[in-house]
Amino acid sequence: MGLRLTFNLVLGIAAIIGIALASFFTYRFLQENARQEILDSARIMLQSALAVRGYTINEIRPLLALQQKRQFMPQTVPAYAAHSYVSEFQKEYPEYSYREATLNPTNPADRATQWEADVVNWFRNNQGKKEIIGERDTPTGPIMYLARSIQIKDPKCLACHSTPSEAPATMLSSYGPANGFGWKLNEIVGAQIVSVPMSLPLRRAQETFTIMVGVIIGVFLLIVILLNLMLSSIVINPIKRMSAKANEISMGALQVEELQPKGAKEIVTLGQSFNRMHRSLANAVKMLDEAET
Prior knowledge:
Elements lengths: L2 H61 L1 H6 L7 H13 L6 E6 L11 H12 L5 E8 L2 E11 L6 H4 L7 H7 L12 E10 L1 H52 L14 H28 L1
Antiparallel strand pairs: 1-4, 2-3, 3-4
Helix pairs in contact: 1-3, 1-7, 7-8
């Protein structure tokens, strides 16, 4: 096996291992980075909804307290305000969603679906957990959801949700006495769930991965080409010249011109040693010829 073939074989194996490891870690990093980007979007959306809820409770509800006694105004309900905010948001980003899924809601539109009910029950069975992150497959592609429990911590909430007899008459006239009652203090009644599509960030991560792997392969190929050029210039070509010269000498051409070693220090030293051997051999043959005559 030739020197160049051996060198390229070893270099090729090293390159394949290097590319495989670089690709593996790059893929994992980009996928994790994409998921973190999705999660950040979900947190921002959830915090925005919480901010709207807080603003409604602290600013809007007191302003409409008098009108609320004469007519039920959904604008005073934090969940309604949050959903109104998200509805405007969804005009630009329809694939994003926010739900305040409740097992027994006042508004039937807020009733938890099967998978949302599973999330709520998970919170009920894990009282110490305040947040859950998961992924779901949907007809439009995978989504990541971020959920936080809705727990009744303020006794004032029970004024509308304990029993129909204690609920505001204006609310009963809008939603009736059948739903949204029987809640208890410190009970987990639902979950705030933000769903964010994963397809676009993951596709971007895949495209970035493809580009980076292409760049890595290109860099390795460039390195292989440069190393082969250096190998040819510094090692193989000088050795070929030396081999050709040695072949001439072995055939009896002792008067051939000496090598002009150049290049790496080791090759120059080897060339100088070869020239000394050449001179010594020529002198020895000359002395033998003179002795015979």
